[in-house]
Amino acid sequence: MVQRGFFDVDDRLAALSAAGDPLERLASVVDFELFRPVLEKALQRSDGSRGGRPPYDPVMMFKVLVLQALYSLSDDAVEFMIRDRLSFMRFLGLGLGDRVPDAKTIWLYREQLVRAKAMETLFARFDNVLHDAGCLAMGGQIIDATVVAAPRQKLSDDEKATIRGGGTPQDWSAPKRRQKDVDARWTLKRGRSKRSDASEMKAGVQIAVPMFGYKNHAGIDRTHGFIRRWTVTHAAAHDSRPFEALLDPDNTASRVWADTAYRSRKNETAMARRGLVSMVHFRKPKGKPLPERHAKANAARSAVRSAVEHVFADQKHRMKLFIRTVGIERARIKIGMANLVYNFSRLAWHEGRGAPA
């Protein structure tokens, strides 16, 4: 057996840095200490005068949630990965002999943030940092929504009807009530399949895929591509329901891009009232072809609007965003962390370009 050297761990970390450790890059771009005041206020911990084992550092625990969002890890999985990966330990500032938070501790920490409704404040804190760094919301805004899947619930027809009515089945035991997600909903994600042969329609065959979970409603700025406004609803909520809440008053430009789901008299009036210019896609008239000028306008608008699809694709494919928690309040912090971590990664990308965005 090869005898271990005194600098083996340092050499291994140096090799990870040379290979381009993305977590090291993220830690160099984002000053996580800026979240400490918000976290300490949300946690409301005692001063330690009563004794007991000291709690884990709140910023370090917040970085654990960042790892979960980046790599789609459950509480048990992230505990194991922290113990297993040197890159994770370095990101958290832990050494080989330091205590590692277990899955229950991670769950309790997140629950405290849920109860304090701290996610929106944390997100706003980093958005202020982006503004101070010169990454202003510019070029107009692009708004869209996507379904985030959650574990499907096995329920009877009567139970489904009761939940849709806003109630909870009376025969459920207390443990069952804690395990069943009564906030998530089913919806149909409509789209078109790819053409299988030349004889099919040019746009493909229309399909509808049933999905269960929540919706991430987000608005990004066109110039920098950061998520500036977001909210969470159940999956069955219409995309345009929180439209006005997603409009960013700080954007320096007036144009607003969105797909046809957002075209309504109410939304057009809301934009006009705020002095915004609608770039929402035109709808095809029922039973009639889409006018050529509207088709050309939609094509031009799609070239801009597609930027928001890249945001959701990054969250679903690279980050593998999935809701493992129960209830919309917990889903909100999971989706909110995914939105915040996306902005972290986006800032790292901008900083790595070597030139102003």
Describe, in plain words, how this protein is organized in 3D.
The chain has 357 residues and is an alpha/beta fold. The chain folds into two domains: 8-45 and 55-116, no CATH class; 136-183 and 211-352, Nucleotidyltransferase, domain 5 (2-Layer Sandwich), CATH 3.30.420. Helices cover 46% and strands 14% of the residues. It is built from 14 helices and six strands. Strands 1, 2, 3, 4, 5 and 6 form a six-stranded mixed β-sheet that branches. The longest helix is centred in the last third of the chain and has 27 residues, at 292-318. The N and C termini lie far apart (52 Å). The model has no long low-confidence stretch (mean pLDDT 90).
Key features of this structure:
globular; alpha/beta; Nucleotidyltransferase, domain 5; 357 residues; 46% helix; six-stranded mixed beta sheet
- Broad structural category: alpha/beta
In DSSP terms (H or I, runs of 4 or more residues), the helix count works out at 14
**Sheet with the most strands?**
6 strands, mixed
- Name the beta content range: 5-15%
Count of the domains: 2
**N-to-C SSE string, H for helix and E for strand:** HHHHHHHHEHHEEEHEHEHH
Number of strands: 6
Output the radius of gyration: 23 Å
Could you tell me the CATH topology label of the largest domain. Nucleotidyltransferase, domain 5
